[in-house]
Amino acid sequence: MERTFIADLRQHIGEEVKIQGWLQVLRDQKKMQFLVVRDTTSTVQVAFWKGNDAALAEQISTLTTESALTITGTVVDNPVVKLGGLELQLASLEVNNLAESPMPFEPYGDTLPQLDFRMDWRYLDLRRKENLLLFQVQTTAEFAMREFCQQNRFVEIHTPKIVGAPSESGAELFTIEYFDRKAYLAQSPQFYKQMAMAAGFERVFEIGPVFRADPSFTSRHMTEFTGVDMEISWTQSHEDVMAIQERWLNHIYQRVKDVHGEQIREVFNHEIVVPTLPFPRIPMAEVIQILKQRGYQLPADKKGDIDPGGEREIAAYVKEKYNHDFVFVTDWPITARPFYHMRHPNNPNLTMSYDLIANGLEITTGAQREHRPEILKKQALEKGLHLEPIQFYLDFFRFGCPPHGGFGLGLSRLLMVMLGLNNIRESVFLFRGPTRLIP
Ligand code: 4AD
């Protein structure tokens, strides 16, 4: 017999079916036994009349919650049953894996242990309905990203993660042994997505792993994360990049709301708000003035960057003034930006770049790139870079590389803000941090 997903049981009233899933609840009564069984689509009540088979009833009574089961039975319409108004009358039971009892914690129990403990037992934690929904949302979001890209003539690329030169700053770089020499784990696909511009691909995107040897213990940093990167040829400034990114995000939010909005409200008590276009844009210099006026003191050592508190404060301002959850902070000083960002033609101290802050959290860095080889070389030298290791990159710009711009977005940060979560450890399948390598 073929397996039926629980969500599809209503199409099989009166028929004998086979379901497979986990035992969530067992109620062993005098004459009847009720099992709540869960698969990734739904839950169902399974009923067994003890008088039918004493040996089977005995076996059912020894079942532990979270055991993996295969059950056959007849689907009956039963309006009094709260779970979907139907019931499966058990005919046979196969115990595929009896869960040890007690478990480190019960994913459907009354109390939820601390996050760190749950991370030790992540495969049990992932059984919670919040987590299943989160990864269903992630699937839809990635689908929508690709859908938009395909509709807008983007090509998907996968660039190497073992690299010979850092693509961002020399800090935050993992070094690995590569036969008899040193190599690095890619901090971003930056150089290679720009290579695709030199290759004439015009529009590319990548969804892939990114590594950062960042020793910080915050609720928003990981040492490995999934980066979503786009690069677009013939843009004239960061404005063209922002215009594409906001349409793209609007599309992703709309898809997620259409498919999961109701369930997100139920499970996370959170409303998906599809961001209206255009998103507000505020130049960095103005942001600093606004923060000052609101009495927010930026830390002195930030080189023109804003800190997380400042991001939240500017988000609060934008919410009050524009009733918007997103804001592009534009025109960053060169001190806070990498060498490959293009500078303003009329102010060489500013870059044509932006950060996107969503609900008070930075989720994106984007910019118009410098595509003129001589200027690019000069900017690299100004930042104190050695040219030799990045010569291959500088060469991309020698043979007709068009002007271009792009951005990078952290997938788990997007999920955090989409679902209103406070910690990035909750929005990634397995967190990687300075002291977390297992499981
Ligand atoms: O701001 P970042 O470092 O920018 C780049 O990598 C550029 N090459 C992008 C570009 O095309 N200009 O990283 C981009 C995004 C951040 O905005 C953030 O969402 C996420 O990646 N991110 C992290 N997410 C989790 N943990 C970390 N340690 C992250 N560092 C950056």
TrEMBL record:
<dbReference type="InterPro" id="IPR004365">
    <property type="entry name" value="NA-bd_OB_tRNA"/>
</dbReference>
<keyword id="KW-0030">Aminoacyl-tRNA synthetase</keyword>
<dbReference type="GO" id="GO:0017101">
    <property type="term" value="C:aminoacyl-tRNA synthetase multienzyme complex"/>
</dbReference>
<dbReference type="InterPro" id="IPR004523">
    <property type="entry name" value="Asp-tRNA_synthase_2"/>
</dbReference>
<keyword id="KW-0547">Nucleotide-binding</keyword>
<dbReference type="Pfam" id="PF00152">
    <property type="entry name" value="tRNA-synt_2"/>
</dbReference>
<feature type="binding site">
    <location>
        <position position="212"/>
    </location>
    <ligand>
        <name>L-aspartate</name>
    </ligand>
</feature>
<dbReference type="InterPro" id="IPR006195">
    <property type="entry name" value="aa-tRNA-synth_II"/>
</dbReference>
<comment type="function">
    <text>Catalyzes the attachment of L-aspartate to tRNA(Asp) in a two-step reaction: L-aspartate is first activated by ATP to form Asp-AMP and then transferred to the acceptor end of tRNA(Asp).</text>
</comment>
<dbReference type="GO" id="GO:0004815">
    <property type="term" value="F:aspartate-tRNA ligase activity"/>
</dbReference>
<dbReference type="GO" id="GO:0003723">
    <property type="term" value="F:RNA binding"/>
</dbReference>
<feature type="binding site">
    <location>
        <position position="369"/>
    </location>
    <ligand>
        <name>L-aspartate</name>
    </ligand>
</feature>
<comment type="subunit">
    <text>Homodimer.</text>
</comment>
<protein>
    <recommendedName>
        <fullName>Aspartate--tRNA ligase</fullName>
        <ecNumber>6.1.1.12</ecNumber>
    </recommendedName>
</protein>
<dbReference type="InterPro" id="IPR045864">
    <property type="entry name" value="aa-tRNA-synth_II/BPL/LPL"/>
</dbReference>
<keyword id="KW-0648">Protein biosynthesis</keyword>
<dbReference type="GO" id="GO:0005524">
    <property type="term" value="F:ATP binding"/>
</dbReference>
<feature type="binding site">
    <location>
        <begin position="410"/>
        <end position="413"/>
    </location>
    <ligand>
        <name>ATP</name>
    </ligand>
</feature>
<feature type="region of interest" description="Aspartate">
    <location>
        <begin position="190"/>
        <end position="193"/>
    </location>
</feature>
<feature type="binding site">
    <location>
        <position position="362"/>
    </location>
    <ligand>
        <name>ATP</name>
    </ligand>
</feature>
<dbReference type="Pfam" id="PF01336">
    <property type="entry name" value="tRNA_anti-codon"/>
</dbReference>
<feature type="binding site">
    <location>
        <position position="168"/>
    </location>
    <ligand>
        <name>L-aspartate</name>
    </ligand>
</feature>
<feature type="domain" description="Aminoacyl-transfer RNA synthetases class-II family profile">
    <location>
        <begin position="144"/>
        <end position="439"/>
    </location>
</feature>
<dbReference type="InterPro" id="IPR002312">
    <property type="entry name" value="Asp/Asn-tRNA-synth_IIb"/>
</dbReference>
<dbReference type="GO" id="GO:0005829">
    <property type="term" value="C:cytosol"/>
</dbReference>
<dbReference type="InterPro" id="IPR012340">
    <property type="entry name" value="NA-bd_OB-fold"/>
</dbReference>
<dbReference type="InterPro" id="IPR004364">
    <property type="entry name" value="Aa-tRNA-synt_II"/>
</dbReference>
<comment type="similarity">
    <text>Belongs to the class-II aminoacyl-tRNA synthetase family. Type 2 subfamily.</text>
</comment>
<feature type="binding site">
    <location>
        <position position="365"/>
    </location>
    <ligand>
        <name>L-aspartate</name>
    </ligand>
</feature>
<keyword id="KW-0436">Ligase</keyword>
<dbReference type="GO" id="GO:0006422">
    <property type="term" value="P:aspartyl-tRNA aminoacylation"/>
</dbReference>
<keyword id="KW-0067">ATP-binding</keyword>
<keyword id="KW-0963">Cytoplasm</keyword>
